[in-house]
Write a structure and sequence with these properties.
This protein is 54% helix and 14% strand. It starts with 6 loop residues before the first helix and ends with a helix.
């Protein structure tokens, strides 16, 4: 007697016909060309009406994406309650901790800022050092040029907030080389090529996650500047730390790179004020000295310090933290 396998476990996925595949490929190419055309137009139109259009699109997006809206609401509720408990953030952000209407407004603003980010990314071609001198302010106490003048490699760890690529333009113009940044590769080749191209114009050279550690370590050892975003554990191999009062996993990559190369590292955040001016804050982020704990304890302590800096940056404008649309805290995901 043979073992029978249920039919539904062995049925092959339906094959895609050549006509359907061709239609999908044509649709992707058409979308990529539309994005390129939109980027060309965005670079030639004044910014205020473009951002007003982005705000309108963000409001529509808020209404049409209920699951994304619920995700942002859960995350922002945790953030604003923590801010209220620690007397941090704006009055509007603290009010959202216990006022449902205020929280909804903050979530809607998060959608609008997400739409603004894509408009700003489309305008990457116009961003140069002159643009930054006018629209980007490095907060007091930080001499970014002096940090970049230090011989040898350096690591900058940021978070998905506002137009977070802007500091890379300073790095690229100062060093004459693009800053290496690991990034997810999306399934649409034409769209991936557009994203790679726009970020390259900002001074970012994207590297695939699978080979990121090897490439970034080699770059640091050559004395180059490397940028990482450390607020989302995309690969699932992060280490749990306290983040806005609850356990969350942050990627261990930044700490491991510092541990293995000994380069100086910094944490940075970017946010936009009501006048349209971007602010960047940079803080040194040191790994505990050898002999102060095990390898894992030192890495965890580094990530705890990183999380404290992230909390301070997010407090400036929680609605501009783009990561709120993604899983951050396991307990919130389990409850949902």
């Amino acid at each position: 007697m043979t073992n029978a396998t249920p039919a539904h476990t062995t049925a092959a996925a339906p094959a895609v016909s050549p006509s359907v595949a061709a239609s999908r490929s044509f649709g992707r190419r058409l979308r990529a060309r539309a994005l390129v055309a939109a980027s060309w137009a965005a670079c030639r139109l004044p910014e205020p009406p473009l951002l007003a259009l982005a705000d309108l699109a963000g409001g529509v997006w808020y209404r049409l994406a209920p699951e994304r809206r619920r995700h942002a609401r859960r995350n922002l509720q945790r953030v604003t309650r923590w801010l209220a408990d620690h007397e941090m953030g704006s009055p509007a952000a603290r009010a959202a901790a216990h006022d449902g209407r205020a929280l909804n407004r903050l979530v809607r603003d998060a959608f609008r800022n997400s739409a603004r980010y894509y408009v700003q990314l489309a305008r990457a071609a116009i961003v140069d050092r002159e643009y930054l001198d006018r629209w980007l302010v490095i907060d007091e106490g930080t001499d970014l040029d002096a940090l970049l003048d230090v011989p040898g490699g350096s690591l900058f760890v940021g978070l998905h907030m506002s137009w977070y690529e802007l500091p890379a333009v300073i790095v690229a113009s100062k060093s004459g080389r693009p800053a290496l940044v690991p990034s997810e590769t999306i399934g649409d080749p034409e769209l991936q090529a557009y994203l790679v191209g726009t970020r390259r114009r900002l001074g970012l050279e994207l590297v695939d996650l699978a080979s990121a550690k090897r490439l970034l370590k080699a770059a640091l050892e050559r004395g180059e500047t490397v940028g990482l975003l450390g607020d989302r554990d995309i690969t699932g191999g992060g280490i749990e730390v306290g983040f806005f009062g609850a356990p969350a996993r942050l990627p261990a990559g930044p700490a491991l790179l510092v541990l293995e190369t000994g380069v100086p590292s910094y944490v940075f955040g970017v946010w936009r004020d009501s006048r349209g001016v971007y602010h960047a804050a940079v803080e040194p982020l040191a790994l505990p000295a050898e002999g102060t704990g095990t390898r894992r304890e030192r890495v965890t302590a580094y990530l705890e310090a990183e999380a404290r800096a992230f909390e301070r940056f997010v407090a400036a404008a929680p609605e501009q933290w783009l990561a709120v649309f993604h899983p951050i805290w396991p307990d919130l995901e389990a409850a949902a």
